[in-house]
Amino acid sequence: MHIPDGILPATVCLGGYATAGAATWYALRKISRQGNPREGIPKASLLTAAFLVASWIHIPIPPASVHLVLNGLLGAVLGYFAMPAILIGLFFQAVLFQHGGLTTLGVNATVMGVTALLAHQIFQLRKVIGAGNRTVLAVCGFIAGAGGIALATVAVFTILFSTIPAHLDVQAERASIYALTLAHVPLAIIEGIFTAMLVLFLQKVKPDVLEG
Fold first, then answer.
1. Which range marks the domain in which residue 150 is found?
2. What secondary structure letter does DSSP report for 8?
3. Name one GO biological process term (predicted).
4. Which of 17, 35, 82, 150 is an S-S bond match for 78, by CB 3.0 to 4.6 Å?
5. Dist CA 54 CA 58 (whole Å)
6. Arithmetic mean of pLDDT, 82-110
7. 66 three-class SS
8. What's the mean pLDDT in 118-129?
9. How many domains are contained in the chain?
10. Mean pLDDT across the stretch 98-109?
11. pLDDT value at residue 75
């Protein structure tokens, strides 16, 4: 899911930084308008650490291997805090573990952060469809968790597919991109189920965590 350095042209990397900056500014603006913006910082810090560690958990799905992303989960639970949380998590993943890259940090942050914000909006639908209904909560949690990773996968597929360098074997690269994209389908289901289970648990033990 993380696009490393040296894959994308400079113009795409610069565009990624521009869109990530705009999305982060928008998220921080929304956070600053909340009653107590600092109240969500501990929760955001905890899930930023979970996002950082999740990339270490690889799941072998032949012919590829994928890792947990949790951007949909962060969007559902953190709301607008998800964007800066993912940006910080990606920075440390790139610096500490060379997972992703600094030139592609903006693109990766846009792909995972903006889709997390979309997952947040999906999760908010539970308040319209059936506030307090646990089935609706679980379904919205599943769609947010699965939708976050599915949308991010489509975005990465589109970016990679449209920017394959001419000097590479285009057919081989396309086959690799197709395989990597298909490998994320079961991952989306796994993250959807995990998100649904987590929001049901939080609703039972600490429902105020889901307010936001």
1. 10-210
2. S
3. transition metal ion transport
4. 82
5. 8
6. 93
7. strand
8. 93
9. 1
10. 91
11. 95
Q: Of 160, 165, 189, which Cα lies nearest the Cα of 176?
A: 160
In a domain, residue 50? The reply is yes
In a domain, 5, yes or no: no
Rounded Cα–Cα distance for residues 212 and 200 (Å): 16
In Å, how far are 6, 24, 204 from 3, measured between CA atoms? 9, 19, 37
Contact between 52 and 89 (Cβ < 8 Å): yes
pLDDT > 70 fraction of the chain, expressed in percent and rounded: 96
Looking at the domain assignment, is residue 191 inside a domain? yes
183 assigned to some structural domain: yes
Structure tokens at 91: 């920075």
Q: Token digits for 102?
A: 């600094």
Q: Write the CATH number for 181.
A: 1.10.1760.20
The verdict on whether omega for the bond into residue 63 sits within 30 degrees of 0, i.e. cis, is: yes
Which contiguous run of DSSP H or E holds residue 32?
helix 10-32
CA 127, 133, 134, 135 torsion-angle sign: negative
